Amino acid sequence: MTKLGMAINLERCIGCHTCANACKLQNNVPMGMMWNRVLTEGSDVIDSAEGTYPDLSRNYLPIACQHCENPACLRVCPTGATYKDDKGRVEIDYDKCIGCRMCMAACPYNARSFNWEEPKRDPDFNYGDARVAVRPKGVAEKCTLCKERTDDGDKPMCVVCCPTNARIYGDLDDPNSEVSRTIKQKNAHVLLPEQGTHPQVHYFN
Predict the structure, then answer these.
(1) 51 — pLDDT class (breaks 50, 70, 90)
(2) What value, to the nearest 5°, has the Cα angle with vertex 40 and ends 201 and 128?
(3) How many angstroms separate the Cα of 147 from the Cα of each of 67, 106, 156?
(4) Fewest C-beta atoms under 10 Å: which of 59, 61, 71, 194?
């Protein structure tokens, strides 16, 4: 059994958004939409500071689909469009998606986007990996853990492109993998554990 996941070193994250842009290009994500986001903790504005001058701090939180073991999105999907595959990833069958957005309402991580209009791209053509499905108007979409790459044994593009090597990717079911060892050694945590979704993305400092 394989359970792909990730550990993110928050001390190494510098808020450069390289992961978000690498994800966008790899996966042909339309304008006005991001699968992978870098939030600034304590603020709704990118690159703001937390606190009151002169006691200010700035901390970043990269976030995308958490590829949960017990995904809330899967439980509410009425058509089976959302599913867990044999590598532990949460994926979407776009042919089955009816655009009800129940998955978006259920996800506690706000990790999905919706194509309200015909997707627009600049430049005006599909970019990135040609194997990535082109999503039409009226479907939900999100991080796939770069399914096309990881099916071939490669790392997700956000991991490859991170300039500070803040992301560690691998098989969580392999106790000897770098990601499993890091999660154990660093006592890594997950987001919103009280939701009971058991994310496969972990964070540590």
Answers:
(1) confident
(2) 60
(3) 12, 23, 8
(4) 194
What pLDDT is attached to residue 22? 98
Average of pLDDT values for 139-150? 98
Q: Report the residue count for the chain.
A: 205
**Both tokens of residue 161?**
């492109």
pLDDT exceeds 80 at position 174: yes
Plot region of 164 (φ>0 → left; ψ -120 to 50 → alpha; else → beta) = alpha
Q: What's the pLDDT at 55?
A: 87
Distance between CA atoms of 103 and 100, rounded to whole angstroms?
A: 8
Residue type, 83: Y
Q: What is the mean pLDDT of residues 45-54?
A: 81
